[in-house]
Design brief:
By secondary structure, the protein is mainly beta. The chain folds into 3 domains: 96 residues, Immunoglobulin-like; 75 residues, Immunoglobulin-like; 90 residues, Immunoglobulin-like. Helices cover 0% and strands 48% of the residues. It is built from no helices and 24 strands. Strand 8 and strand 9 form a beta hairpin. It comes from Oryzias latipes. Pfam families: fn3, I-set. Keywords: Immunoglobulin domain, Repeat. This is Fibronectin type-III domain-containing protein.
Length: 300
């Protein structure tokens, strides 16, 4: 109705009006999460609190790596009047991944991603540990990088050894050893990998076995033998053959170059002279003790 100094007019009724609340699409404010990435050290607690907008109030759900987030005693979510919260207690490397927050109301639905990276000490190097080379002054090992680097680059490897008769890991020495390798990154030193086999370092090989003489002639004989029972922890690189004339007192070398195989023909013998022979093995450390002499054989 209208009103002036003379009074009110006759009222006029309007058509029905429907009053509706304003609506808006859900929206997340991730400005508090730098580059949408959260980095945490293993064992710490993670709390991601995200302001949520939208009318009517959106319903919130979470996913991890495109699968519905499994809630546990360590992992839970909260929804307040203004925020959505993800809590992870005592986080581990397995908690790393892409976390997706989903908001939905009558206007529509939206999603956004947050990357969680949990860093830790590295896992053990991949084995087995290989023995590459052994000498009297060093022992060379090889291994592969860990499958789990802890989320950051490996900065170092720690190599320890122990005597097989001891439980204490220490520096390399001339004895029988086991080897252990540990990877290291900026968060510390990870779990070890230990060599499967023991190895002897700085030791000459044992004597060859079962030296026998065959094909006896007036100026030559053929020797055959078996490999030593122990190589000294280093591959055999050859054999040294020596002869002794029964009429003399000295042992003399028969081969100018190291013999690789397990047989050797001794030439230059004197007819009707009687000889005995012995064989020694050689590795990177040196020449081991010779075998027991053969019985005497006459060159005929």
């Amino acid at each position: 109705m209208a009103v002036n100094q003379s009074g009110r007019s006759v009222p006029r009724e309007s058509k029905p009006i429907v009053v509706r609340d304003s609506t808006s699409l859900p929206e997340f404010d991730l400005r508090g999460v730098c580059k949408k990435t959260v980095i945490a050290k293993a064992g710490s607690d993670i709390k991601i609190e995200i302001p949520v907008f939208g009318r009517p109030r959106p319903t919130i759900s979470w996913q991890k790596n495109n699968t519905a987030l499994k809630l546990t005693q360590r992992i839970n979510v909260e929804t307040t009047a203004a925020t959505a919260v993800l809590n992870i207690s005592e986080c581990t490397r397995d908690d790393s991944g892409v976390y997706t927050i989903l908001g939905k109301n009558i206007v529509g639905s939206v999603t956004d991603n947050i990357i969680v990276k949990v860093h830790d000490v590295p896992g053990p190097p991949k084995g087995p540990i290989q023995i590459v080379e052994i000498s009297r002054t060093f022992c060379m090992f090889s291994w592969e990088t860990p499958e789990n680097n802890g989320g950051v680059p490996i900065t170092n490897y720690v190599v320890e050894i122990r005597e097989t008769t001891s439980q204490t890991w220490t520096e390399l020495s001339s004895t029988v050893i086991r080897t252990m390798v540990l990877a290291e990154n900026e968060y510390g030193i990870g779990l070890p990998i230990e060599s499967i086999e023991s190895v002897k370092v700085s030791e000459k090989p044992h004597s060859p076995k079962n030296v026998e003489v065959s094909e006896i002639k007036k100026d030559s004989m053929v020797l055959n033998w078996e490999t030593p029972s122990e190589t000294g922890g280093s591959p055999i690189i050859g054999y040294i053959i020596e002869k002794h004339d029964k009429e003399g007192v000295r042992w003399t070398r028969c081969n100018r170059q190291t013999v690789i195989g397990l047989t050797f023909k001794v030439t230059g013998l004197l007819e009707s002279h009687i000889y005995e022979f012995r064989v020694a093995a050689e590795n990177a450390v040196g020449i081991g003790e010779p075998s027991s002499p053969t019985v005497f054989h006459k060159a005929i």
